[in-house]
TrEMBL record:
Active site positions: C847
Protein name in UniProt: Cytosine-specific methyltransferase
GO BP, sorted A to Z: DNA methylation-dependent constitutive heterochromatin formation; methylation; negative regulation of gene expression via chromosomal CpG island methylation
SUPFAM superfamilies tied to this protein: S-adenosyl-L-methionine-dependent methyltransferases
InterPro entries, A to Z: BAH_dom (IPR001025), BAH_sf (IPR043151), C5-Methyltransferase (IPR050390), C5_DNA_meth_AS (IPR018117), C5_MeTfrase (IPR001525), C5_meth_CS (IPR031303), Cytosine_MeTrfase1_RFD (IPR022702), SAM-dependent_MTases_sf (IPR029063)
Keywords tagged on the record: DNA-binding, Methyltransferase, Nucleus, Repeat, S-adenosyl-L-methionine, Transferase
Organism: Cinara cedri
Segments traversing the membrane: none
Database matches in Gene3D superfamilies: 1.10.10.2230, 2.30.30.490, DNA Methylase, subunit A, domain 2, Vaccinia Virus protein VP39
Reaction(s) the record says it catalyses: a 2'-deoxycytidine in DNA + S-adenosyl-L-methionine = a 5-methyl-2'-deoxycytidine in DNA + S-adenosyl-L-homocysteine + H(+)
Amino acid sequence: MAEHVAHELDNVASSSKGIKRPLSNSVNVTCKSIRKSNKTASGEIQTKVKVQTKSTVTCELCYQINPEIVTIPCNAEFECIVLTNEVLANIYTDKLDVIKHNLTNYSVYDENGHLCSMDSGIIEQNKPIYLTGYVKPIYDYDSSIENGIAVKQLGSILEWFLESYDCGSKIVIGVSTNYADYLLVEPHPSYRKYMTSIFEKVHLSKVVVERLVELKESDDPSYEDILNYVVNSVNPVTNIKFTEENLISHAQFVIDQVDQVDYESTTEYNFPLVGTQFIETLKKLSGDASSIVKMPPRRLNIHRTNSLKYDISKQKYSKATTTYLVNDIFEKIFTAQLEQYKNENVVVINEQKTVFDDIKLSKKVIKTPQELSGKYIIVKEDSSINPIIGHVQYLFQNCSKTMAHIILFIHGNHTILGDTSDPRELYLLEKCTDIDIKNVIQIADVKFKKPCKDWFKLGNAELKDISEPVDRNKINAFFYQFQYHEEFGRFEHPETPETLIGGTNQNKYCTNCVKKNLKIKSQVPELFEFVEKYKNQYFHFNYKLNNEEYKIGDFIYLKPGIFTEDLRINFEGQAPFVFNDTNKNENSTLPKNICETKYPEHYRKNLENTMRGSNESTPEPFEIAEILSMHVTKNFKSNVQILVRRMYRADQIPLGNSDKNADMNLLFWSDEQFKIKYDDIVGKCYVSHINNVQDLAAWFADGPDRFYFENKYNFLTCSIVPECQLSSVAIPTKREVNPVNYINESKKQSIPSYKKISPLRGLDIFAGCGGLSKGLEDSGLLKCKWAIEYDDNAAEAFKLNNPDTIVFVEDCNALLKLAMSGKTTNKLNQKIPQKGEVDIICGGPPCQGFSGMNRFNSGQYSLFRNSLIVSFLSYIDFYRPKFFIMENVRNFVSFNKGTVIRSTLRCITRMGYQCTFGILQAGNFGVPQTRRRLIIMAAAPGETLPFYPEPTHVFNKRNSSLNVQIGGKKYKTNCKYKESAPMRTVTVYDAWSDLPEIKNGANNEAIPYKHKPKTHLQQLLRYPNNLLSESILTDHICKDMSLLVQARMELIPISEGSDWRDLPNIEVQLADGNWTNTLVYRYHDQNNGKGPGGAFRGVCQCASGKKCNPQDKQTNTIIPWCLPHTANRNNNWAGLYGRLAWKGFCSTTITNPEPMGKQGRVLHPNQHRVVSVRECARSQGFNDAFLFYGPIINKHRQIGNAVPPPMGKAIGHEIINAIYKKSHHFCTTKD
């Protein structure tokens, strides 16, 4: 074929402009429907259709339609002849076996004479392509054709390569043939557009790699992080900003470049860039790299590689600053990062085996019963696998056997600590059992380890200075300091360790038995204050259950759905008005008769059951009722029957949206009465008539579980009854809120308020913009005196919202080193907190390495970031605060098979802290977002360990799995509300519906609100602390997306569940006048079959089971080619380019909203743009007075990395309760 083309080229007619290569393919004439789109005044796209006749030619070599013909210079010679020219013959490079020249005014073409790109995949298909142009010596960089030697059919091209100079700042593209290498200087004018793709990918990969390396604030850069940088970078060749289409189109080249940088990396800590989340997402969007046809090996081990040289300086990484104790615990995990202490400062413990390590080390002992009394014993029963250990409380006879009643202990290896535990440490359980004394194999020497009197001063003490209560040379020597709750993985100091009674315990007393019996007794209702007997029923005024007293006139939470017709005792036979309206999303019915030619991807929506972010599976909140009476029958005195009055919530009756969403605390009185059982009651709540509350907002803020009513709802007529028609018993309800003398006694009730304390002095580490400390401060727990944040913009945001806080903008390790060395100020003369000054520490060590979003986290650099937990714990050990809170992503518990969480808890308990861990869902605390977070709480010796807060709002069940499994055992929190909660879920509508409409790229940082608050949540966000806010809305700005992305967003239907699969396959004229392309489906999809009329559904040959073909890539299409290309193996990319639903919730708010990012649905429910900064802030629970700082991407990052303040506030209230409990217990004991 090559000879044929050469002969044909030599014999064609020539002109002064050169030679045109004739076409070899037949011409087909078809009618094509062209859709022209113009924007209306409102920014909408109007698509117009016009039909024109257009000839199409498809080349079997280059796959182009209507290919252009190459122009060959006059008098051009073949390559082998040109190379003999005397100008070139004596030119050699440094390597004598390689000839290198320059080539200008060049064009590349195939055997059919069609201009084509070297980057089109044609080389990978083993199809020859050639060059024409003017060859010049290597030293002649002039781009003109002057003094150049015309060449034709140069090649075929074996490969193209890159060379860089000026420290990598300038890039040259070269090609290689069998004879020589050629550096490409300037393309022919008609060929310039074919080089655009190569120029784009070369400069794009340079931008990506350098950003990956420079992004120091994140060890695992996300797709959104890099994309935001890319789309704001300018291609120096075209002076046009890169787009997401460019990135995905050139994904394989970018990945190859990143891989090459990893291969050539010589940094001290080798961090694999190709293992970042960005590369993983890019691979998924573009197609797995392993499925792409690779270029066949032509010349190996030559003088270059097809990669760039980057001027990247050697990265230096801070090592974790640690205390001696923390270093000892984590040394094995983070050896490469931790500074090693001198050998003389390290205490090496010669650990001997214990009886738990090898049962053979122990010989069965025969002791008299008197010798076992009050002793710690190790028991090995025939039926047990492991020996058990316990303290003998008392002895007794059972038939002919001498039995011992023992309080059980558990070895650390069988707790959540696993193999990270101290082999000599035991943990007291709230369990006891009876054993036969003949199974005693050893008397153990167990000591109780009391906290040191100077415990708060032991920060950074050397290990040899920390007392050891155990002789580690004895196989039966152990100690204990904590009581362990197996269900929760909770470590607490025993209330009274001295109650381990032994000796002459004649009364057979056991603390655990007493607690167990009291618990059983509390679960049986106990009636008080007999009122009257009616027939066989005994009526009482109050009863007690689970240590909670209930009386007539109390308001209660009931299980959802309990008010059924068969339980109603009045209005018998009268059918109520049926009202079926909730805040849930309803399944969107698929439109009928969808034209698959226009909407070729819509069929994929049939494959999805539910939409992410939908409230379809969200449970209802508790029902609310008033207790009217309670009675038992003579023969069933423990089965308390209760008569209640139903109270309606606003969302349970047919109100307009504005009224329904106005107030979540609003109830409606009713005359309906129901008979329920005592175990249907979940808890107490507090309801008042509106006239008895002077300031509703202040009353709600003062305590939990508070509601009010003003009117009655008539369920028979479906109407609201005005206040004047309310029953006389309704008006005085909770009159004690506004006390008067004539209060009805049955209406009195003590309404608890949030406890108040003097705020603790707080230190926020890895503070970000301050979400966690903001919530804790809102609860009244702390006053944040100091904060540490390395990122300048986040630190500035923290300062804006906390002007009185000392904010250290520096590496936390460097600051801790100063504090540990005794320094009182840093280089900026900021005062460093000293020991004894910090009461509470909170913070979330950067979680990128642990995050479930980050799938590649095993690199050394990621490991370094993970070791910032070591730095955080060293702060704890040094300052020894009364309390601390550590927040991290849910995946923290499963990182490295649970080793990290185990080591963390081991380190905390080794310091002497009581601690507990659990997963909380932010959506349960009143934010329209799913965000599960690990929360570790710890309390110093002498303090009370807090419990986790109960959910205040119901949330989607699919996102509410809060149990964790570590080492084959499940752990949960203490929370009782498993199936429901006091308040309904919060929706996107609740959070955003009052915000003014803005356009794509809106950048006005201060605008008027334009609307009053429409919902309960908006009242709270706009008027925090019940104070009127400014009328100016800040940070309601959004990212400016490219013209193509904007066109796609405008074509996404404004309907629930819509996403990229609803995009039409049409041509659209963009704002710059350019037209998009239609997506061409060329292949049979073996997974999904053919569409109506036998239409293909595959956009790449991989759909039919073959390897991906780079020539199948398509760009500038409304339906992004990459999505149908990889949809079959990525859950159909459900949610990408997706709209949020007004009645739904947001996915986890991330640091950069992108339509094709992992967060999925980031388009506004009814506006053609991505979510704004203020909308993201509201989805996290930040009120509108909270400020952010820096460029828009930094503001998004500050929000996405934050802990939702409402969740922090709930945690703060629980810590305050623990503090109050301690002080109350102390006062009671003292009295």
